[in-house]
Design a protein that fits this description.
Elements (H helix, E strand, L loop, with lengths): L3 H15 L5 H8 L6 H9 L6 H10 L4 H14 L21 H15 L4 E6 L6 H14 L3 E6 L10 H6 L3 H7 L20 H19 L2 E6 L6 H13 L5 E7 L6 H8 L6 E3 L5 H12 L2 E2 L1 H8 L5 H13 L3 E4 L2 E4 L8 H9 L4 H11 L4 E2 L1 H8 L3 H13 L3 E4 L2 E4 L2 H9 L3 H17 L4 H14 L8 H17 L1 H12 L7 H16 L3 H11 L6 H17 L3 H12 L6 H17 L3 H18 L2 H17 L3 H15 L6 H17 L3 H18 L2 H17 L3 H7 L10 H18 L4 H12 L8 H13 L3 H14 L3 H17 L3 H15 L5 H15 L2 H13 L3 H17 L3 H18 L2 H13 L5
Parallel strand pairs: 1-4, 1-5, 2-3, 3-4, 6-8
Antiparallel strand pairs: 7-8, 9-11, 10-11
InterPro entries: AAA+_ATPase, AAA_16, P-loop_NTPase, TPR-like_helical_dom_sf
Organism: Phytohabitans rumicis
Keywords: ATP-binding, Nucleotide-binding
């Protein structure tokens, strides 16, 4: 019998194929803006869980399927599916802990009710330690579970701050949840070794995967995500939550962030501002009457005046009250008489710490020792790791941990144990002196490393050891060995933590020693990943003077070149590469790789001819050395060169050849993405926009699946250009929003910001100037390379400000210096238009002559359109301009077609053919209206009035 779930997914895929496999974005757009996101559509088509009926029904309707039939399949699959896996929240809060929180509890209950109906929101719960924040959320979480929602609960702590996304990965991406989804864990991204040149932002990649996973989870049932102790969160976790606050507007997702009122970090203040004021809950201390009620509920009787006097010192804090009263009860200093509970005798605890210490005195010395060891690991800890660090077997630990749990010190935290409250852990941790704690952390790290623990678990112990020693502790030999072995894995997971450890390990170690050389290469990589390109370049550059290992040399040069590219230092990179290539001892394999790097650098700098020569040399050397890696990359470089020379048709066979070589090799996974991106560009240059958009969307999905954030953003940038050309400006604007991904790659950022500015300038958007100013900063790093969208935006800004001569000057300067034919194609038509507008007939004729060269023998619509358009402008020829408009229509280029129709209308009016002019103006206005190009509409209406034409 066929599995109902598999049957449903097979039928969904079959329906998708029968509909021509439209992209997820196409399906989302067909449903109307804001109905379903393309990510939700993707989860329905390719997800691993049975989706909600609502999204599935909409997708089936969009694809032309039989809704009733699919509803039957869905009901069968839903009945066969397991309930969604979720992380259980901490146990239900006691009734006493909710005293004084009735109003806040009603709010949370209302929000959970809204969640069950599909309405999401972001909530922030603030207050002092122990004020009852977690208790409030525990109650809400229990009600959400009862209502059938998925609940994920995680907490941050001091030891996790150096490890990006650790709280979310440990909960949403837990081993059990990953197994339930039948897929690899997102955390595995950080364990992957990076091939040379694959400088991907792993944190951004993991963030995107987490967001996609949460999106997918929400298609199965509503989700409550609670992040406790947010004040300890790492910056990446805070940024991820900021992203989630926006997705709650379209998903059945309730995000509840719980934080103390201090410290006031800048990123937490920004997150707070992103949450609507009505959803910010601030908890205050209990009133006198509520304190009386709270104490009565805790002691099980009416509190006497002396007991209430002591309780008043707790400042209305429920945790302080609980710990204080518990300490008094355990100490035997309260009596009960006729239902009244009173403080009788003895000395009360002087502080909360004393109250906690008093509570812990009831534990045996052996249990306290084990708990102090557990406190080294944080608020929550692994029992298996505790056994390693403490030197005790599991059999010895279990009874001791059970005793601590029975005493209320520990609680079950899913896959780990946790202290019942962070303050309990803090009291145990601080019982030990700072120097002793540093030694304990170092010893724990070594024991964990010796048992093969993951790099981040070991580093979590080493970092506080260094902090306690002021960063001046000795560099143990085992730390050097350990970092040399797992340093790259640690960089992939937590580059900032790796930098701290690498610097300590390298202290006092002489240059030229192999361990230091390896650690230096790793350090340079880590610095580049955290965005410190200048320091990464300095470290890599200094190391080149003494590194002799050729593999390390290539790694350092790759980091150095990428770091310098961020600041436009292509000339420096090329000088360094030439020096390395001049070495007589360099092996052919390494020479081929360096030639590839040099060719790519020339491409980045816009030097097409030099890039072509080096790419050819790299390919020949790689083939002779039988180096598949270098051969594949050399072919990729050749495809880029051909594209820049305007011969995209000749590049397509090279893509197939390179892909055949790169297929199946994990070290060439990044290259496969690069080839996919460049192929999408080539298809767009050939006016195959439908195929190009599909290719860009596919490679972006592949990059997302692979966790390669850099390639994902590059594919997104290409997609934004294609959408702009085809007149899908609203969608293009969505794709230009990449600054929030923390990218520092100048080409991608310059293109995206320029496109956003260009659209804004055409639409009269006040933010366009700011976007263009941001693009200026990245354009300054490009060296001799010029980018079409940036040049067009700069020119249009001058034209809009009433300076057409300056606008023309920007375009002419580009035409005079660029070697990139596709850039010429992008700007030539506008140069001819502006030259005619300012009366510079010589320049207009020169542009027309160059259009002949550009068009050549090509039958591509855009090339023939430019030729007809430039000639039509020079001769004020209505027929040629209409011919250009038809070519632009075949090539799916909306803005140039509107401009050609506008010019044809003016030519017709100049010739006295007002009927034709009216028709052409009307068609141009329609296209500008579709684009919402308000500035262009105003300009055309002014021209129409100038001719005395009424529409």
């Amino acid at each position: 019998m066929r599995d109902p779930i598999e049957t449903l997914f097979e039928e969904i895929r079959l329906l998708h194929r029968r509909a021509g496999e439209p992209s997820t974005r196409t399906i989302a757009r067909s449903l109307g803006r804001g109905v379903l996101s393309h990510t939700t559509v993707n989860a329905v088509l390719r997800g691993s869980r049975v989706p909600h009926w609502g999204p599935l029904e909409l997708v089936v309707q969009a694809l032309g399927g039989d809704v009733e039939r699919f509803k039957e399949l869905w009901l069968e699959a839903r009945g066969a599916s397991d309930s969604p896996a979720a992380v259980p929240p901490p146990r239900m809060a006691s009734p006493a802990s909710l005293i004084g929180r009735r109003q806040e509890l009603r709010l949370m209950q209302d929000w959970v009710t809204d969640l069950t109906t599909g309405q999401g929101r972001a909530v922030l719960v603030e207050g002092a330690p122990g004020i009852g924040k977690s208790a409030l959320l525990r109650t809400a979480a229990s009600e959400a579970v009862a209502a059938g929602c998925q609940v994920f609960w995680t907490a941050c702590d001091e030891l996790s701050q150096a490890f990006p996304l650790l709280p979310l990965l440990s909960t949403i991406d837990s081993p059990a949840a990953a197994a339930g989804r039948g897929r690899a864990r997102i955390a595995d991204i950080f364990r992957a070794e990076s091939a040379p040149g694959n400088q991907m932002d792993l944190v951004a990649a993991a963030t995107e995967r987490l967001l996609a996973l949460i999106d997918e989870l929400c298609t199965a049932s509503s989700v409550l995500l609670v992040v406790d102790d947010l004040q300890w969160a790492d910056p990446a976790t805070v940024r991820c939550l900021g992203r989630l606050t926006h997705t709650t507007q379209r998903l059945p997702l309730l995000v509840a962030a719980v934080t103390r009122t201090v410290p006031q970090r800048a990123d937490l203040r920004a997150l707070r501002r992103s949450i609507e004021p009505a959803a910010r809950v601030r908890l205050h201390g209990l009133t006198e009457a509520e304190v009386t009620e709270f104490v009565a509920g805790t002691v099980g009787g009416v509190p006497g005046p002396r007991l209430l006097k002591l309780a008043s010192d707790a400042g209305g804090n429920p945790l302080y009250l609980t710990e204080l009263v518990d300490a008094l009860v355990r100490g035997g200093t309260v009596t009960t008489d006729m239902g009244q509970v009173e403080f009788a005798a003895g000395r009360p605890p002087e502080s909360l710490s004393a109250a906690i210490a008093s509570r812990l005195e009831f534990l045996s010395p052996l249990v306290r020792t084990v708990l102090r060891t557990a406190a080294l690991q944080g608020v929550s800890f692994s029992v298996a790791e505790l056994a390693v660090v403490s030197g005790k077997s599991l059999g010895e630990l279990v009874p001791l941990l059970n005793e601590a749990s029975d005493a209320g010190v520990l609680r079950d935290d899913g896959h780990e144990l946790a202290f019942h409250h962070p303050l309990i852990r803090a009291a145990l941790y601080e019982e030990t002196s700072v120097p002793t704690r540093a030694a304990w952390h170092r010893d724990a790290a070594r024991k964990l490393a010796e048992t093969g623990a993951s790099a981040d678990r070991v580093a979590r112990q080493l970092l506080p050891s260094l902090e306690a020693a002021g960063g001046d502790g000795p560099s143990d030999e085992w730390i050097v060995r350990w970092l040399a072995e797992v340093g790259q894995s640690l960089v992939n997971r937590a580059p900032q933590a790796a930098i701290s450890l690498l610097r300590v390990a390298m202290r006092g170690m002489p240059a030229g020693v192999r361990p230091r050389d390896r650690l230096t290469a790793t350090l340079a990589d880590a610095l580049y990943r955290v965005g410190d390109a200048a320091e990464a370049a300095r470290v890599a550059g200094d190391a080149l003077d003494h590194v002799s290992d050729p593999d390390l040399l290539v790694s350092l040069l790759w980091t150095l070149t990428q770091s310098r590219a961020v600041h436009g230092r292509h000339a420096d990179s090329l000088a360094t590469l030439e020096s390395a290539l001049d070495s007589p001892s360099i092996a052919p394999r390494h020479r081929a790789r360096l030639l590839v790097l040099a060719a790519r650098t020339h491409c980045f700098a816009g030097r097409v001819d030099a890039a072509g020569r080096l790419a050819d040399a790299a390919l020949a050397t790689a083939l002779a050395a039988n180096d598949r890696w270098a051969t594949s990359w050399a072919l990729a470089a050749q495809t880029v060169v051909l594209g820049m020379k305007g011969d995209s048709a000749a590049s397509l066979p090279l893509y197939d050849r390179a892909l055949a070589l790169a297929g199946g090799d994990p070290a060439l996974a990044d290259l496969r993405l690069v080839l996919g991106i460049n192929r999408a560009v080539a298809l767009g240059n050939l006016d195959r926009h439908g195929d190009a958009i599909k290719a860009a969307e596919q490679v972006r999905q592949l990059a997302d699946d692979a966790g390669n954030a850099v390639r994902r953003l590059q594919a997104q940038s290409v997609l934004s250009e294609l959408l702009f050309e085809t007149g899908q400006w609203d969608d293009a604007l969505v794709e230009t929003d990449i600054e929030r991904h923390q990218s520092n790659e100048p080409v991608t950022l310059c293109v995206s910001l320029s496109l956003a500015a260009l659209i804004g300038l055409h639409r009269g958007d006040a933010s366009a100037a700011q976007r263009l100013a941001s693009a200026d900063r990245y354009a300054s790093r490009l060296g001799d390379r010029v980018l079409g969208p940036y040049v067009l935006a700069k020119s249009l800004a001058h034209e809009r400000s009433g300076a057409p001569e300056a606008a023309l000057g920007v375009l002419l300067a580009t035409l005079a210096r660029t070697e990139d034919v596709e850039t010429v194609v992008a700007v030539l038509a506008n140069a001819a238009r502006l030259a005619v507008a300012v009366g510079d007939k010589a320049t207009a004729r020169s542009a027309a002559d160059r259009a002949v060269t550009v068009a050549g023998r090509s039958d591509m619509p855009r090339r023939q359109a430019i030729l007809a358009y430039c000639r039509g402008l020079v001769g004020n020829d209505q027929a040629l301009l209409l011919q250009a408009a038809r070519y632009y229509q075949v090539g799916s280029q909306v803005l140039p077609r509107a401009q050609a129709l506008e010019a044809a209308a003016a030519a017709a009016a100049d010739a006295g053919d007002m009927a034709a002019a009216r028709s052409h103006f009307t068609n141009a206005l329609f296209l500008y209206t579709v684009l919402h190009a308000d500035w262009d509409l105003g300009r055309v209406h002014a021209r129409i009035r100038g001719y005395g034409i009424s529409l």
